Amino acid sequence: MKSKALLIFSTLAVATIVLLFFGCPSGKKSVVEGDAAQKVYVAPGQYDEFYAFMSGGFSGQLSVYGIPSGRCLRIVPVFAQYPENGYGYSEETKAMLNTSYGFIPWDDSHHPELSQTNGEIDGRWLFINANNVPRIARVDLSTFRTVEIIEIPNSAGNHPSAFVTENTEYVVAGTRFSVPIPQEDITLQEFKNKMKGTISFIKVDPQTGRMNIEFQILMPGFNYDLSHPGRGKSHGWYFFSCYNSEQATSMLEVNASQNDKDFIAAINWKKAEEYLKQGKYKEIPGVHYHNIYDEKKHMAYSEINDKVKVLIPQECPGLVYYIPTPKSPHGCDVDPTGEYIVGGGKLATVIPVYSFTKMIKAIEEKKFDKEIDGIPVLNYEAVLHGEVQNPGLGPLHTEFDGKGYAYTSCFVSSEVTKWSLQDCKVVDRIPVYYSIGHLCIAGGDSKKPIAKYLLALNKITKDRYLPTGPELAQSCQLIDISGEKMKMLYDFPTLGEPHYAQMAPASVIKDKQAKIFKLEENQHQYRTISPDQAKVVREGNKVHIYMTAIRSHFTPDNIEGIKVGDEVYFHVTNLEQDWDIPHGFAVMGSDNAEILVMPGETLTLKWKPTKPGIYPFYCTDFCSALHQEMQGYVRVSPANANVQLSWNK
Ligand code: RUQ
Ligand code: CUA
Predict the structure, then answer these.
(1) Closest ligand 1 atom to the C-alpha of 459?
(2) Range 69-93 burial, b when 16+ CB lie within 10 A, else e
(3) Which residue lies with its CA nearest to atom 1 of ligand 2?
(4) Residues 121, 446: contact at Cβ < 8 Å?
(5) Could you tell me the distance, in angstroms and rounded to a whole number, from the CA of residue 71 to the centre of ligand 2?
(6) Mind listing the pLDDT tens digit for each residue in 544-555?
(7) CA distance 73 to 55
C-alpha cells in the first residue's frame, strides 16, 4: 500500500517537474520552422482542406473548425441549451433534452465519431457521447444539427462511447461508474458486492441513421473507460479498456491503482448476434428516452422504451475475454489493419501492443490465467505483440498514419511519441503545450488515415495565449506529420474542453449541405406559408400567433388582445428560400432565448407576459438593409381586460 502510494506520488513529482520545466515562460521557445506560417495560411475566400469536429467537453456541445487554418466555423448544440439559436429553448427542440430523469439542459461530451462505410469516413453522420446522463447523439452532416438523442439505461458515466464499427453497424456505450443494476437503495458497504457495468451495442439503421439499443452485456463492475472496434481482420470484435478492477469506491486515486494490471475486454459482437438469434438473452427493465427530430414536421418528439435485452457472459461462452493490461489503462485503440490493439496504460511505463492473430490463437489454445464471472482472462504474454519502451509519461491515446506508425499522447510529459507498429521502437517525439489528452489524425481511427496533420488536444495552456483571468482557453496544436519528423505548425484555442476530435477531408462533407428547407415540404403543425395566412388564434389562455418573416417584415406586426396570464406561442415561419438568410425573433421580457429561424423552417417561442404594456419584438439577425425596421408590437392588457383579439396583415 505504502509503496504504491509512493509510486504515485513520485509519478506526480516527476509530472510537476516536467510541467515546471516546460511551463515556465522563460522556457517558452518557438519550436516552429520558417515555412510553418505558409502551411497553415488559408487566404481570404479560400476553403480549408479539412473539417475538424471537436467535442465541447463540459460545454456539452460540438465545435467545427477548418484545418489547417484553425478557424472556428460553427458550434453545434447537442447536449446543452444554446441561446444563440434557441436549441433546447424553442418548443420544437426542447424534447431533444428529455431523459428518464426529466429535462436535462447540460451534459459533458467527450468523443465525436464520424460514421464509416467499409472502414472509411463517409461524411453522413457524427455520433457523440454524453457522460453524465448516459446518452448518444447523432448529428446530421447535411444540416449540422442534432437530429437524435438516445438515452442508455443501466449505465452511469457513458465514457467509452460513441465509437462505431466499420460499417456503422453499431455505435457503442459503456459504464464508467459501475452501479447496482437494477439501481437500488443500499449502503455503500453493500454496494461493493453489487457493482455492475454494462456495455451497450446500439444498432444504426443504414438508411436513416436511426439508433436502437440492440443489446447490453452485463459485465463485472469495473470502470469501462474507452473503446475501439476491430476493423479489417478483427471486424466483428470490439475492445473496451477498464480500470479499477479493484472495485474501490473511495480514494480511487490510490485504491484503484493497486493491481499491476487491469484489462481490455475483447467482445465478439458477431457471436453476440448469434446468441440473440438463439434467444439466449434476458429482458430486463431499462427505461430510456429516445428523442428524434422530424425534419419535415420541424419538430422533436420523445419515445419512451422500458426494456432492454441483456446477454450474460457466464451463459454465453466465447462472448467476452479479458486481456490483462498494465496499469489503469485509458486509451484503447486499433490500428488500420485491425491487427494491433494498443492500450494506453496511464500509470504504466510501457505501451502494450496486442496482436489480434495471437489473441485468436490464445483463445483456441485456451491460454487462460483465470476466470472472472465466467470471463476467461487471457495470458498476457500469449497475446502480446510487443511493448513500447520509454514512450513518455502517462500515455493516453493512440492514432495511426496508415504507414506503419502510431502516435501516442503522453499527458504527464506533455509530448507526442511516434513509434513503429512493426517493432514497437520510438522513432520521434515532439513536445506539446501542455498536458495533451487526445490526439487526432484525419481517419486516424479508420482503415484509411490521411497522414498530413495531427491535432494535439491540450488541457492546459498556461502561458500560451493572452491571459483571461482565472479561466484560460483550452488549446489545439497543429502538427505536420507528412514527413519523417513531426513538425509543430500552429496553436489555436478551442471552446469547452476538447477531449477527442475527428477530422475529415472537406470533400466528403462540403457538397452535401442543405441550403434551405423547402417551404412546400414544411409540415409543421403551425406553419404559415404566406403572409395572407397569418393569424392569431385563442384557445382558452393559450394564444397561437401564426407569423411569417421575410425581408424585412413580420406579419402580423401589430397584435392586440393578449392578456397577463396568457401563454403566447409565436410560431414564426421564415418564408425565404435563399441560402444564408435566417431571421431571428425575440420579444421584450420573455424568459426564454431567441429563436433563429432558417429559410423554410417554422420555430416557436413561448412567452408568458407578466405586466400590461406595449411590447416590442424584433428580428435579431442582420438580414437586410432594412433589418432595423423588421420589428413589431404586442399590446398586453390586464388579465380581466376586455380587449378583442386583433392583428394586422
Ligand atoms: S478522455 S483525455 Cu477520451 Cu474523456 Cu482521454
Ligand atoms: Cu430579419 Cu433581420
Answers:
(1) 2
(2) bbebeebbbbbbbbeebbbbbbbbb
(3) 583
(4) yes
(5) 26
(6) 999 999 999 999
(7) 14
**3-class DSSP state of 20:** helix
**C-alpha span between 371 and 325 (Å, rounded):** 15
Query: Which three cell numbers, joined as nine digits, stand for 429?
Result: 517525439
Cα 342 off chain centre by: 22
Residue nearest to atom 1 of ligand 1 (CA): 499
Distance 348 CA to ligand 1 centre (A): 17
The DSSP annotation for 30-47 comes to: ----TTHHHHH---TTPP
Residue position matching grid coordinates 449540422: 144
Take residue 233 and report the three cell numbers written for it.
Answer: 481482420
Rounded distance between C-alpha atoms, residue 139 and residue 509, angstroms:
13
Ligand 2 geometric centre to CA of 571 (Å): 16
For a mutational test of ligand 1's pocket, the pick from 177, 226, 240, 455, i.e. the residue with the most ligand atoms closer than 8 A to its C-beta, is 226
3-state SS record for 354-409:
EEHHHHHHHHHCCCEEEEECCEEEECHHHHEEEEEECCCCCEEEEEECCCCEEEEE
pLDDT tens-digit series, residues 339-388: 999 999 888 899 999 999 999 999 999 999 999 999 999 999 999 999 99
Q: How do strand 558-563 and strand 261-268 relate by DSSP bridges?
A: unpaired
DSSP3 helix / strand / coil % (the chain, rounded to 5): 15, 45, 45
pLDDT per residue as tens digits for the range 453-497: 999 999 999 999 999 999 998 899 999 999 999 999 999 999 888
CA distances from 557 to 234, 416, 531, 618, 619 (A): 63, 59, 11, 9, 11
Q: Which atom of ligand 1 is nearest to the CA of 409?
A: 2
Quick check: 574 and 582 in contact, CB under 8 A?
yes
Q: Tens digit of pLDDT for each residue in 431-460?
A: 999 999 999 999 999 999 999 999 999 999
